[in-house]
């Protein structure tokens, strides 16, 4: 009987699919992320056939060596796979799968939630009410920014970036200017109001909102740094729901403090799970704890997708969401 290690309890539907196949499951029952040494201890000498892991588990060479040769797949409970040494996994014939598509809407919705909340100063307004500061209607109370008719910059027009662009154009009458190493002419035809640029600086200079949707790679670390932030309009907002290290947070905190840009909304953090101290007190920033895909529906679908990928591999088939390097 195949044996599977699951590094943290996840929503039930995928677990049930694996149980129904008769596999023997070992689930980390601690209500927290396992440390590196706990992961090593959990899989060493256990001959698991598959591991279901999280984006917070760093699957590096040492762990892949320990998992090999019995473990045939690491099914990552995330769309991003920057936590896994993909090249080394391939060299050991270990397959990697992820959870694309099922979280696209949820993350795009969360991106828009951040755009709306920072523009309309929702968090400040909520605090203002609860702390009894509201003494009556005022013409200049908590003035924010309009969204309709503005230009949204998308850095990375993958699945999520494209969905955010779709919401912007169809829901909010925005124009979209996108940068991506690869132009997507079909998307432009489908969505009039979309313009491409091969120069990321154009996006930063010309947009009222800039939203980041690229994967974390050596080439995208600090893609948005002090110099790039200085290109943005002082009235512009920056949104990041991709990966923290893409944005230089020290530079961002200076830009927010010195009104180089107007505001920012972050769901991911350079020093995650820590919030960089320079950001903590800033009123023109809103933050959420990496919850962009955290809806009940989406997290169940991610669970099923991980199970599907594991089942495929254990039945000798190619996993539907194989990550190719
Ligand atoms: C979340 O960040 C994911 O990559 O799924
Ligand atoms: C991730 O799912 C992306 O392609 O944006």
Number of domains: 2
What is the fold-level CATH name, i.e. the topology of the largest domain?
Rossmann fold
Low-confidence stretches: none
Please state how the strands of the largest beta sheet are arranged side by side. Answer: 8-7-6-9-10-11-12
Proportion of beta-strand residues: 5-15%
Number of helices: 13
Number of strands: 12
Outline the biggest β-sheet.
7 strands, parallel
CATH architecture of the largest domain: 3-Layer(aba) Sandwich
- The CATH class of the largest domain: Alpha Beta
Q: Which word captures the global form?
A: globular
Helical fraction equals 25-40%
**Class based on secondary structure composition and strand pairing:** alpha/beta
Whole-number mean pLDDT: 98
CATH superfamily of the largest domain: NAD(P)-binding Rossmann-like Domain
Distance between the termini: 30 Å
In this entry the ligands are: glyoxylic acid
Order of helices and strands: EHEHEHEHEHHEHEHEHEHEHEHEH
Assembly context of the chains: single chain
Would you write up a description of this structure?
- This protein has two domains: 3-102 and 296-314, NAD(P)-binding Rossmann-like Domain (Rossmann fold, 3-Layer(aba) Sandwich); 104-287, 3-Layer(aba) Sandwich (Rossmann fold), CATH 3.40.50.720.
- The longest helix is centred in the last third of the chain and has 19 residues, at 296-314.
- The protein is built from 13 helices and twelve strands.
- The strands form two sheets. It has a seven-stranded parallel beta sheet, sandwiched between helices. Strands 2-1-3-4-5 form a five-stranded parallel beta sheet.
- Helix 1 (12-20) packs parallel to helix 13 (296-314) and helix 5 (104-119) crosses helix 7.
- It has helices spanning 12-20, 36-43, 61-67, 86-91, 104-119, 122-130, 159-172, 185-190, 200-206, 226-231, 249-257, 277-280, 296-314, and strands spanning 3-6, 24-27, 50-53, 73-76, 95-97, 151-155, 175-179, 194-197, 209-212, 237-240, 263-266, 285-287.
- By secondary structure, the chain is α/β, with parallel strands linked by helices.
- Bound molecules: glyoxylic acid (2 copies).
- One glyoxylic acid binds at residues 79, 100, 104, 158-161, 213.
